[in-house]
Structures are given as C-alpha cells and as structure tokens.
Amino acid sequence: MATEVAEKPSEDAPVPGKVSNRFDLEKETELRFEVESGEAAEQLELELLSGMAEVFGSELNRNKKYTFGPGSKIAVFTWQGCSVNLYGKPEVSYVSKDTPMLLYLNTHAALEQMRKQAERDNERGPRVMVVGPTDVGKSTVCRLLLSYAVRVGRRPTLVELDVGQSGVSVPGTVSALCIERPADVEEGFSVQAPLVYHFGSTTPGTNIKLYNKLTSCLAEVFSQRCEVNRKASVGGCIINTCGWVKGSGYQALVHCASAFEVDVVLVLDHERLYNELKRDLPHFVRVVLLPKSGGVVERSKECRRDTRDEKIREYFYGFRGLSFYPFSYEVRFSDVRIYKIGAPSIPDSCLPLGMSQDDTQLKLVPVTPGRDLTYHVLSVSSAEDGEEGARKGIVESPVCGFIVVTNVDTQTQVMKVLSPAPRPLPRHTLLIMDIRFMDMK
Amino acid sequence: MADQNKKDTPEKFCCEMLSPSELFAARARSHKIPVKGQKDFFPNDSDEQRERLEQSLNEHWSLISEERVERLGSIVKASWIPSEQIVELQSPAGKFWQTMGFSDNGKQCLLPEEALYLMECGNLQVFYQDLPLSIQDGYERFLSSNTVSLQQYQVFGHLKRLGYVVHRFDPSSEPASYARQLNLPQSHDRAGRQVKRKRSTSPTPAPTSSQTDTQDASERMEEDQCSHDGEEAKKLPELHPTTSPGAAEAQTDATSSPDQSGVRNWWMTDVGRNSGNQADHHAASGSTRWDFSSILFPDLGSSERLSSRLASPDSSLLPGTLAVGDCNISPWRRRVNQREVKMSLKEREEDKHRRQWDVNRDREVRQCRNWAEYRDLLARREGKRKGQPAHLWNREVTPLHDPTQPISTGELLEKISVIKSTHLLDGASRLKGSDEWRICFNVYQPDMVADFKKSNPGKPYSRMCVCSFDGPVPDLHAIKLLAFQSGDVPVVFAVVDYGDISFYTFKDFQLPTDVFP
C-alpha cells in the first residue's frame, strides 16, 4: 500500500534532503503517523496529491503542504480514497483499515438529526458530553464532531473541562469557545474570544468544589447565550471532560451532566463507566458507548507536561512561537492583589459555628508576594478592581488574560512579568495557579 | 375683648381722653405677664390645685380685661376689605412696615394675620364700615379658612412675639426642582413679584379657591415629568424609598428616564423578542423528548441487539457530499474495553451495592421528562432528607434567609432588614402632592431684622408647618414631600396644643452598623 519513492530527486520532492513517502489510501482507511518528539526532531510535511482526505474532521487542500511539529500524532482519513505524500521521516507511519470513523460519523448524523429537529421545533440543540478515561481520544472525538457540525453549517460550542490538557486556553482553566469554522489542520480551532475561568491546577481533584462551581458557571453562561442566540442554541455544545472517571471525578461528571442538562453522553471505550452512567443519569439522557480508535496512543507524564508547556508558550508566543511577541515589564506588589482560591483545610473545631469545611474550598486567600512566586502562571481576573465588595465575585469572574512571573525582587517589592499586552495590567486582581512556566526557548 | 363694653360709638372711642392721673396710673401699671408654671395634666381633685388654677385664671382674665392705653399718634388707621381679605392702611405705616405688609397699586396693605397681630400689639386700629373693630372682632373676621386658621395665627403670633420675621410661604417662589438642581440664581423678577404678594397663597389648606391655582410651578413641572411614570406612582401611593442618595439624583432619574425608557424600549423590542423566544423555548424544552428510537446512535453497549449493521446515514446530515455505506458494528462490540477494573474488597463491595441502585428504577424519576423536572424532584427529596422544615418554605411567606447558605454578617443584616432605611429626599420628587400637609410660613431670624428687605428676603431660617396636637402625626410621605418642597431649608412642625406650641423637626441620620465585613 505504501509505495516508497525515497531519495528520488524530482519535482515531486521540492524539499531537498527530505525523504518523501507516497501513500495511496483506499476508501475508509486512514494513514497514521507520529513525528518524533524532542528538540532536535525535524518537522514533517504532508501533501494531498489526489482524492479527498481529512485530518480530524478538517478537509485537506490538494497540493498544499501541511507542517507538523515534533510530537504530533496525526491520522489522515479518507472516505473516498486518496494519495498523499509525506516529506520527512516519521517515527511511525502505517495505514489502518480499522477505524471507528464510520461510527463517529453515524454519531454526528444522529446529532445533526437532533439539531434539525431542534431547528424545526424551536427547541435547543443537543448538548453532548464526551467522557472516558485518559488516552481514548476524547478531545479528538470532540474536534471531529465539532468540525463536522460546522461543516454542515452549525455553530456548536466547545466546552473544555479538561483542566490538564485544555484545547482552548492554557492548562488549569475551564473554558467555552464558539466554533465558527472547522479546525485548522495544523493549529486546531481558532481561539477567538473564548470564555475562560481560572481553576489553577491541572487536576480537578485539587479542588473539586471549585471545579463543580466553574462547571455550573459555564453552564449558566452558555444557557444565557442560547437564550439570545438562536444559532448557538440549535448548535448545542460538545463538552470535553477530563479522564478522571472514578470517585469525585465521576461525581463531577454527573454534576456536569446535570448542570449542562446534557442530552447525550458519549462514553469512549469504558463499558463500566457506561453502565454506571446509565444507572446514575435519568432515563431521558442517552448514554452511548463508542469504541476508541486503534490509533490512539498513550501519552506519558512527560509528554503531557510538554504539551502543557507548549500550550502556555503558544499563548505568549503564538503557534510555533512565531506570531506573537510578548512584553516583559515590572509590576509593583502594591499595585496588585494576588489570591489563591481554596484555603488549606482546618480542623472542624477551629471553624466558626455553622460553617462546614467545604466552604473553605471557594475562599480567596491573599498571597504575599515572595520569591516562591517565580515562574508561576497568574490569571488576570476580569473582576472589577475595588475593595471588599468586589471580592466575592472573583471566583465566578472569567479571566481576561494570563501573565507569568519571571523574576521577583523582594528588595524593591517588584516582580517582572511576561505579558501578552504592554503595561498596564487591565485589572489588578491576580489569581495564582499551581502551574509553572519557564520561558526557556 | 377688653374694650368691648366701650365700643358704643366711634366718636366716644376716639374722643375718649384720659386725665393725667389716669394716664399716669395706666403707665405705672405692671406689664408683667403672669408666669404659667408647670403644666398639670390631670385633675387630682385637690384644693391646692383648684386654687392654683383659679388664681391663674383670674390673673389671665384681669390681664385681658385691662384697658390698653396707647398714644393716639402712634396708632395706624386701616380698613378691612372683606372681599379681598386684606387690610388697607389709611394712614402712613409705622416701623412694622419694614418686615410686614405689601404694596398693591400704590396702596399699603396688610395681610389679616399681620393686621390682627398689630392690633394685639396696639399699633393698629382697623375700621370696618367706619366702625373700629375690637380685637375679638379681628379674631372673628380675619381668621377664616380663606386666610389663616386660628392655630396658624397662634404660631404666627408666637414667632412674631419672639422677634422672628414671619411671611406666608409661597410655593411658587420656590425654584423648580430642576432649577435647584442646576443651581440657577433666583431671577430678580420672581423675587420682585414675590414681594408684591398680590394674592399670596393662603397657608390654610383651602379646599377650593386659592390653593389650586397657585399650585406651584415646580410641582406642576414635576407632574409633567412624572406623567410618564404616573402609573407607577399611582401604583405606589405609599412611600417608595429608593436607595438613591439624593433628590437631585432622583430628579435626574426622573428627567432622564423618558429618553432612557425610549432607549430601553428600543432594546426591549429586541429582548422582548428574545424573551418571547425564550418562553417558547422553555415551553418547548418542557416537552423536549428526543425520540431516540428514530435518532440512531451507534451504541455499542445497548443490550437490545438491534442489528449488527448500522444503516447508512442520510447524506443530507453529513458534511460535504459524503455518501457512506452501512456499518458493521459487531466487531467493535468485541473490541471495546471491558476489562475488569482492579478493585479492593471494600471497593468491590461498594460496587456491588451500587450496581443494585439505579435512578431509573424509581417511578417518579421515570416520570420526569427533562432535567428541570428531574432536578426539581431531587431538590424536593433533598429538602425532605435534610429535615429542612419544608412547611416554612412552601408557603407564600418564607423565611428571609436559609441558614444553610453561609453569607457574611453584613449581607445577612442587609437581607433581614425588611424596613429599608431612607433619606428624607429619597424619591421625594416622584411623590404626588397632598393637600393635607402644607408649609405655612417662612421664618427669618430676628438678628437680620435690621437689614431685612421684603423685596429680597433671602433664604429663610426655617419653614413652618402648622398642625394640631389632636391631629395625626405626619407620615413619611408627608415629611418627604415637605422636605422636597422646602429644599435645603429645614421644615419645622409647629404643633399647637391649645395655648402651647411645640416645635419639632425631622433630620436624616445614619443608623450605626457595627459590622466589619
């Protein structure tokens, strides 16, 4: 199937010195390849020569070269058959006939049927929650379904609840993004004016109460949007969740289903979770078990950390670190107020009468700026600056941007920050994340 | 009253001359007013009390019955014109002209209360049909519902005797609220007109004539302004304390709300449409039931083994011009992750327990058709389980605060303060005027009498509202109205208890709150 035309200097291979591999794909098969990760790894280029193909729901243009950076794991799927050229040496590359794409497409068809009905009956469209353990391709399924929905003219909303591997904003946040065009093959969805809430950590377990609160916030804002925007209402939403499906993580999923009033739950490759959800969700919620794609690879801890780092770098420097030029300036401690959400737990006997322990999880704790602040990512809360009165709204306020502390000078009481915009800071309430980012590249 | 028996003929009165010895006696007589002493509130049937009362009464009677001796030259003559309810001076006015009276077409005139006061002071002799009026006549003729009431005169006289300059309050002389807001200087024209109080409004709540036509301009203006929210005002005849900090602001609201409402309407149409949608939408979502028997999901887990082949989806639902065949799902069924999760004994036990529990076995849950109903059900059950006294919450009157919701002390106090604090001027501009309470007099301080100008009296020291001790206490509505009408001059309530007059005033103050949020 894979005919190798290696080392053949011709006009077919315009990049000299790169290996060129030609693949001819039959209908309903996909080419999977991985690009080596690491600093020294070279990029890969992909070109569609004939036929039609798509990468996670986004169609490829013919004779356009797509570049994939180190660590990329790509599947090129074709419904009709095509031939593609791969320039460079992939770590792995093979063609698979065995893809669940047809099942995913059928899922999309069912959702589209629901949207049509919603449009006809002036109802709201399907709200879909995608759940499953880690590394089953939840984000990919979301991207696929969203891309398909946009391609048939819908305006779905992506709700990103995966605080570890956010597809929309930096890690440690939950967010919602209105999807207006299919994902870019290289960059993913264009991130324009997402609604982002600060969570502060890469796993919901650190503050499950806050996680559920933010889920409710997002659900409320989304519902409000649906009320004023018919198109968004019909488009519905697709909720990406994190891979924590036991204990509190599972309870968070049930809470999310209730907060968003989901209609469909897609369970990826986890029959036990499927059965549990069928028991715990009311009968009018359709729970669907889907297989994972054989192409899904498990990601190591390091790999996840690298992706997170990459995501933060992308926030400041743009895709592949090329398009944005962040600013670096000093901020006086006295000009900002830094908080952490969630107080450390204290013994019940020390609590005021009638207060329960849970309440501390949503408390704002002022952080004294010090040397340990260095490299931490800080969210700039959009809560109005002001005294005590404004404080209670901070947890539920969306974030207007992020900065990274690069240096702290306790002597002069200033810290140096990396910021996407020149000074001054738009707001002066900062929320600290557990996540750190070192600007090394 | 004193000279009642002597008023047989004017000639006799005018010609009555005193012999030197009589004159001397009259001059030397003590003019001391008897001391009233403490007031006795209840008769205690004791002789002592009776004697004291009798003595006091006798003193008063003798004081009243005493003949007043005045120099003929210092008595100003005047005549009572009942049709106009004024007293016109016949001879040049005395010193009192600096603070009292007004000119009308070159004639010097006095208002009835002023004339009566001057009569009592022995400065004025009023003739009616060429006959001099006694003080008693004055009381009978001058005090009427068209001029001033007895109580108002009592207050007037009391203040005059204390040295204050007292003028009738003319609501039209008050700058309109918008002028006050803009801090406009009072136009001279207005001030001039005020002096020539041609027909100054009677401070008495006259039911018909004078009061209505002199309905003040500001009020009228306000009415115009308020006309658009007249319905609202009607709906809220009672006080509607708002939290806006001042009348000025309230006024701003009032003036700007027409455009605002216009703008709002403009928005509203949009919102209205949306909310209509929303209503539809909600109504619809009430019956939302996706028919999942016709909406086919490729569910690998479904126990009902439909067909192992999924029919190809309608191509109109698919992106692009995609046409796909049917799909065999049976191989996927086998491949899906069904591996046993490693569990400890305890977890296994819990799991077993959980497996027996299914929300959908519940009949009530099965009856819910959507999330709203389901959550309602859960909330109901939650309430029951918590032992929250549901009977407190399902009635029309519910507790002000749910104790399970922790909020700060400050917020809690705010929440349970049913009677909201209000400032005197809050929302006063929107209130409808009432006839019951009216400001009667402007009062100027005695120390400015020396350079007092009737043409430009300046800002009064205070304004008097006269009421009776028997009558009702002014409600907040009345107080707000009067305070608004008076602007930055304090309104004093003169409460007449027969002979005694007490003065009360209402002032804004802040309730102290001992809360640190």
TrEMBL record, chain A:
Its biological function?
A: Polynucleotide kinase that can phosphorylate the 5'-hydroxyl groups of double-stranded RNA (dsRNA), single-stranded RNA (ssRNA), double stranded DNA (dsDNA) and double-stranded DNA:RNA hybrids. dsRNA is phosphorylated more efficiently than dsDNA, and the RNA component of a DNA:RNA hybrid is phosphorylated more efficiently than the DNA component. Appears to have roles in both tRNA splicing and mRNA 3'-end formation. Component of the tRNA splicing endonuclease complex.
Q: What is its main location?
A: nucleus
Keywords noted in UniProt:
ATP-binding, Kinase, mRNA processing, Nucleotide-binding, Nucleus, Transferase, tRNA processing
GO biological processes:
brain development; mRNA 3'-end processing; RISC complex assembly; tRNA splicing, via endonucleolytic cleavage and ligation
Species source reads Scomber scombrus (Atlantic mackerel)
Q: Does the keyword Transferase apply?
A: yes
Q: What is one GO cellular-component annotation here?
A: mRNA cleavage factor complex
- Per UniProt, residues of the Clp1 P-loop domain are 132-318
Official protein name in the record: Polyribonucleotide 5'-hydroxyl-kinase Clp1
Binding partners and assembly: Component of the tRNA splicing endonuclease complex. Component of pre-mRNA cleavage complex II (CF-II).
Gene that produces this protein: CLP1
Domain Clp1 C-terminal, first and last residues per copy: 325-439
Q: Which domain of life is it from?
A: Eukaryota
UniProtKB/TrEMBL annotation, chain B:
Bias (Low complexity) ranges: 201-212
**UniProt entry keywords in alphabetical sequence:** Endonuclease, Hydrolase, Nuclease, tRNA processing
Q: Where is the composition biased (Basic and acidic residues)?
A: 217-238
Q: What is this protein called?
A: tRNA-splicing endonuclease subunit Sen54
Entry keyword NAD: no
Q: Which Pfam families is this protein grouped with?
A: tRNA_int_end_N2
Polar residues: which segments have biased composition? 252-263
Q: Name one GO molecular function term.
A: endonuclease activity
**What's in the GO CC field?**
tRNA-intron endonuclease complex
List every stretch annotated Disordered: 176-287
One of the GO biological process terms:
tRNA-type intron splice site recognition and cleavage
Query: What is the similarity comment for this entry?
Result: Belongs to the SEN54 family.
Residues in tRNA-splicing endonuclease subunit Sen54 N-terminal domain copies: 62-128
